[in-house]
Amino acid sequence: MSRDQSLTNEALFERAQRVIPGGVNSPVRAFRSVGGTPYFVAEASGPFVYDVEGRRYIDYVQSYGPGICGHAHPAVVEAVRQAAGRGTSYGAPTRDEVLMAEEMCARVVGLEMVRLTNSGTEAVMSAVRLARGVTGRPTVVKFAGCYHGHSDSLLVAGGSGVAQQGLAGSEGVTAGAVADTIVAPYNVVPELDESVAVVCVEPVAANMGLVAPEPGFLQGLRDACDAAGALLLFDEVITGFRLCRGGAAEWFGVRPDIWCFGKVIGGGLPVGAFGASTEIMSGLAPLGGVYQAGTLSGNPLATAAGLAVLGLLDDDAYVLLESTAAALQEGMAGAFAAAGVTAVLPRVGPLLGLFFTEDAPRDFDEARKSADNGRYPPFFHGMLRRGVAFAPGAYEAIFPSLAHTEAEIEATVAAAAATASEMERDSEG
Ligand SMILES: *Cc1c(COP(=O)(O)O)cnc(C)c1O
Question: Which one of 19, 85, 183, 408 is at 20 to 30 Å from 170 when CA atoms are compared?
């Protein structure tokens, strides 16, 4: 790869910090919790990212989820290239928006209408407004450690970068904005009263590391919502179209009232979506009184990419994705065990997590204890030095893609073995 020798990671980071807060456009990308200088990506292909210094990494970040087919998949690239040639935004409806909505509704049982947004944040924010609008109730229940994007009322006790920075929520959010938000511990069915409009949950919590729902938790939420007349919202921005064709609702056999999607359905383009039954979605403008809009919503590049990705996600793809994740789980667990490093890799289908503790955490308190025990930074840097990129924070999930072959899994496991011995040696010394 040809490159400008003056563009080192170090030099770019220095310049970035002068003109971009923290040098990053999203806090999770900063290396603050692991230390050091972020690698600046020059390009990516399949399971690999390449930094500006020409170094190659096996990438398990995959843009935190969108890269389910790996980077720059030829079918996705070609779809975007062709779409770009036809114009990048019109402010009028398109065929591909219809195809996209039809494809999503065909895969997810109970999903009858969807609206596309530009991000997962927008999707959840709009879905909560819709839930409040159609129920006429104010209260939102969320679970500690779940991340639903960065809108004011949902940041409180958020996972991902909010957790990484040790923030309870965010400065700049008024007491009023969170007055109607109730935070409950994950994996415990809360008591709901008649003020509750909606219960928002990540059906697999994937922003506090990976925390699986305990048996009965999601069904318990379904029952509690039905009893209280509240709506159940599955934030499937990570799990949607990833766990299986029908996402977490199909995987766990529990149907929410409202779904939120993002990440996978954009193939790396900015996109989100929320949907529900025709009855609920009819509350949305222009049919109903709940307003929601977007200049770029349903963007032709995003729908082209999304359709290309969904086209690649057939039954075989899910089998492959899960077996790749299982091989990674098994291999890394073996490497840690052999080196005497205590670790657990919880897995739900193709979604994988990593905690340096004996047991898999069940809620945010447990996740926080294990994420903050100081074991993650040496693991992260040991792997990065060996050409394997995990997220620069212990609160993120691991995202193997369809492009990760046995060779990459083997290389990753070998790197984990070497890193684990190093961690063990250093903790003894
Ligand atoms: C990433 C994420 C969001 C926010 O999506 P953005 O596109 O980053 O705004 C919301 N919910 C969950 C579960 C997520 O993982």
Answer: 19
